[in-house]
Design a protein that fits this description.
Largest sheet: 7 strands, mixed
Strand content: 15-25%
Length: about 800
């Protein structure tokens, strides 16, 4: 069933509450929506476990989704409460269940008469209540009345009460309560004194959403650290807070930040009003963040520090701390559902506890597409193609890139004394495609290092190089170098020829070069064909991952995508329908453990065992599309992979784990801080706190890219770990102390260590031996004479005695409390 057929079937339903994006209908055992829909609903109910309590069906009108909603008191309660919901994605065959039974402020229904057939025996009764509520002005602002406490607060403020299905005046009016149960919560104490920008605001800068000329309003800014910081950086930022900046009026802005406000409001109705009000002020984007519950060390999910110290007590749907402040800890999925229920739009997770809510669907799709796009290293491309940079560096880079081909060509050319023809060198066509010309290839061979004994100035005239005038296209490049390189850079980023609206200097380009096509031909002449082809393939894979993940979200009409994204889809897939079909195929493959196992099998990136593949986040864009889509499904629930250091891809269980370390790049043995596990089968996101566990990461070079600039240093340190007895059998992860207590190595003679601790710098400058240390002179020198402590202290010979070595150790901050030498 496609979307058009689905919509046609819905048009046959003669009643129901129709909204722009959904149709709500009441159903009981006698309800019928037509043979096809009835059969579909029966199959769906059997598959997802829906029963007779699910008495309202929500048909999405803009995508293939159906929800079974349980309102047990639909007929008897004037405004029945939602207890349970099951949403099924017909395109993917997946469903998600949400339980509202324990929700303090659950969604409720209004205008019940619109959900039942015209001949329903109680329809007139329902209609009479709705007319009375309209006359009383209860529907003047409908933004928050769809939630129980907010509705009750509104009735109370107007001195009204609903009895049965009648609206009546209260006998006495009492001030509306705030849900604090008589306790005065001191919210102002939750405003932290910070000396850096908050995580949500940092994310706006990292994603380039906060740019010069963009306005930002911090709704509930506390003491205003983000506002002051952004103003100091030259951004147009302002903030309001009910305690610390009450003199500032709320105002509309392009971006609105609701940063860690929802979790400190103890009143669920006021909490909802704050969310809706913040969204009301956002012209383009609302950023919502809140505290997320985390398990501690053992992996048991629970509230991180909610009950630390034993001084906290349960209060409403959160806890009351010893400082008389309130904290509500959300689950990741709970927070996303809460935002979407309140604002009736999509919330995009960007980090643990941080969500973006876009006003414009096209801007949301551009953001999601950009997250699937890899970066282009223009500096590296320029070096390969000779586009600027010191000449020697350029030719060396070219030679390294094409060494085998250039060695073959260069040797043949030097032997012949002239450029070989196609009959003399079989790889001539490939050479021209990669390097652009025979002359350029020969120069790369000679000056790049293929013939170090030769001087290019002497070789060039023998081949007629430098004798005649340079080609016109080379002169054209030299004359307009900056313009052409800017155009080529954009072409590589897009993987296609840019259109006028995408390149600001397009008019200048056509005036000086002639056309975009000619400008691109100059790039191909300089040997850029391979780079452009690779860029196009990469962009197509990036788009494939994007459209695959688009099937997980509300489908956006093609016309709502940005012009650039529409061009990309037409260029690489022909049309939007074919792109979505290809993406859906990839998504199905990502859900097949066999496909995941196959993709991992011959992969030369990261480190893997039988259960999982481990890769650094920077390797994600180099993975096969099926693995990128697999991880992408998890980021759709968790946020951006940039928040993690190492990604664990479970091969068979349908899980992705994101591992966050303390300074992964800077520390030789980084310590695990947080672990976020995403179960794609259940859509459950669990966060665990490991900061007190002391869990170190060994041999971290196994997880990074083969061309990582720090690889050699990592490997060198790992070799020293092996000398200390930490073998590969320890695995990638272990507690720091255990590994060094239980390992011993035999370097000709035994090293016995009773207890050894690393310093905070992890061999950065000092290693302390505490307790008795027994080792041989030869073993000591073999281990530590090569600068194992990050500084090469002067042990010049293995014949020095321990008494001679000790003073040198002390001078280099190595503390030896008990050291003796055994023969």
């Amino acid at each position: 069933m496609d979307l058009a057929e689905y919509r046609h079937l819905l048009e046959g339903i003669s009643y129901g509450k129709r909204l722009p994006t959904a149709l709500y209908v009441f159903r009981d055992k006698t309800s019928s929506f037509g043979e096809t829909l009835d059969a579909l609903l029966r199959r769906l109910a059997e598959t997802c476990g829906a029963n007779d309590l699910h008495n309202v069906i929500k048909f999405r009108l803009d995508e293939l989704k159906v929800s079974f909603l349980a309102y047990p008191d639909f007929l008897d309660d004037a405004h029945p409460v939602l207890h349970h919901a099951i949403t099924i994605d017909l395109a993917l065959g997946k469903h998600r269940a949400t339980d509202y039974a324990d929700n303090i402020n659950p969604p409720i229904l209004h205008r019940k008469e619109s959900l039942v057939p015209a001949d329903h025996p109680r329809r007139a009764e329902f209609e009479a209540l709705t007319r009375a509520e309209e006359a009383a002005g209860l529907y003047n602002d409908t933004t928050t009345i769809g939630f129980k406490l907010n509705w009750e607060r509104l009735l109370e403020s107007k001195g009204l009460v609903v009895t049965g299905h009648s609206l009546e005046r209260r006998e006495s009016v009492s001030p509306a309560g705030n849900g604090s149960m008589g306790v005065v919560v001191e919210r102002h104490k939750t405003a932290l004194t910070r000396y850096e920008l908050s995580k949500p605001v940092k994310s706006l800068l990292e994603y380039g959403l906060l740019r010069p000329g963009t306005t930002l309003f911090d709704y509930g800014c506390g003491q205003g650290a983000d506002v002051r910081g952004l103003q100091g950086l030259g951004y147009d930022a302002e903030g309001w807070d009910p305690v610390f900046r009450r003199e500032v009026a709320k105002r509309a802005a392009d971006l609105v930040n609701l940063g860690y406000v929802l979790n400190v409001i103890e009143d669920p109705a006021e909490r909802l009003e704050a969310l809706v009000d913040a969204y009301r002020h956002a012209r383009r984007l609302l950023v919502v963040s809140a505290m997320i519950s985390q398990g501690i060390e053992s992996g048991r999910p629970g509230l991180r520090s909610a009950f630390d110290g034993g001084g906290c007590a349960q209060f409403g749907d959160g806890v009351l701390t010893k400082r008389n402040t309130f904290q509500k800890y959300f689950e990741q999925q709970e927070l996303q559902q809460y935002i979407e229920d309140a604002l009736e739009t999509t919330a995009v997770p960007v980090a643990l506890g941080v969500f973006y809510v876009f006003r414009d669907p096209a801007e949301q799709q551009d953001f999601l597409s950009a997250r699937s796009r890899r970066t282009i290293d223009w500096a590296q491309i320029s070096a390969r193609l000779g586009l600027g940079g010191p000449p020697k560096v350029v030719w060396e880079a070219l030679y390294r890139e094409h060494k085998d081909l250039l060695d073959s060509f260069g040797n043949v050319a030097l032997q012949l004394g002239h450029f070989p023809g196609s009959g003399e060198f079989a790889g001539l066509d490939e050479l021209r495609q990669r390097l652009g010309s025979e002359k350029r290839a020969l120069r790369a061979f000679v000056q790049g290092g293929g013939a170090p004994e030769l001087n290019w100035a002497e070789v060039a005239p023998r081949f007629g190089i430098g004798v005649s005038a340079r080609p016109k296209w080379e002169l054209l490049y030299e004359q307009h170098k900056d313009l052409l390189e800017a155009f080529w850079n954009l072409a590589l980023q897009l993987g296609r020829v840019p259109v006028p609206k995408e390149f600001a200097r397009f008019g200048e380009l056509t005036e000086t070069i002639g056309s975009a096509k000619r400008a691109l031909s100059l790039f191909l002449r300089r040997g850029g064909g391979e780079a452009l082809q690779r860029s196009a393939e990469n962009r197509q894979n990036d788009l494939l991952v994007y459209v695959a993940l688009a099937n997980l979200r509300k489908r956006v009409p093609f016309g709502h995508l940005s012009a650039s994204l529409r061009l990309d889809i037409r260029e690489f897939f022909g049309n939007y329908t074919r792109a979505l079909e290809k993406g859906l195929e990839l998504l199905y493959a990502a859900g097949d453990p066999g496909e995941i196992e196959l993709a991992c099998k011959d992969l030369k990136l990261g480190w893997q065992d039988e259960q999982a593949l481990y890769v650094h986040r920077n390797l994600l864009e180099r993975l096969p599309p099926v693995l990128r889509a697999y991880v992408g499904c998890a980021t759709a629930l968790f946020g951006d992979v940039a928040q993690a250091d190492v990604i664990k891809i479970h091969k068979a269980s349908g899980k992705i784990t994101f591992l966050v370390y303390d300074d992964f790049d800077g520390k030789r043995l980084p310590q695990l801080q947080h672990r976020i596990k995403v179960n794609l089968k259940t859509r459950l996101v669990q966060a665990f706190d490991h900061r007190d566990a002391g869990q170190l990461l060994y041999f971290k070079e196994r997880f990074v890219a083969p061309d990582d600039p720090g690889l050699a240093e990592m490997a060198e340190f790992s070799a020293k770990l092996r000398k200390l007895g930490v073998g590969e059998q320890v695995g990638a992860f272990d507690s720091g102390r255990t590994a060094f207590r239980q390992r011993s190595d035999h370097l000709g003679q035994e090293i016995a260590v009773h207890e050894r601790h690393l310093s905070e710098d992890d061999f950065g400058c000092a290693l302390q031996f505490r307790g008795q240390v027994t080792l041989t002179q030869q073993a000591f020198c073999s281990l530590f004479a090569e600068g194992d402590f990050g500084c090469a202290f002067p042990i010049h010979t293995e014949h020095e005695t321990i008494s001679q070595i000790s003073p040198k150790l002390h001078r280099h901050h190595v503390c030896v409390r008990a050291l003796r030498c055994e023969d």
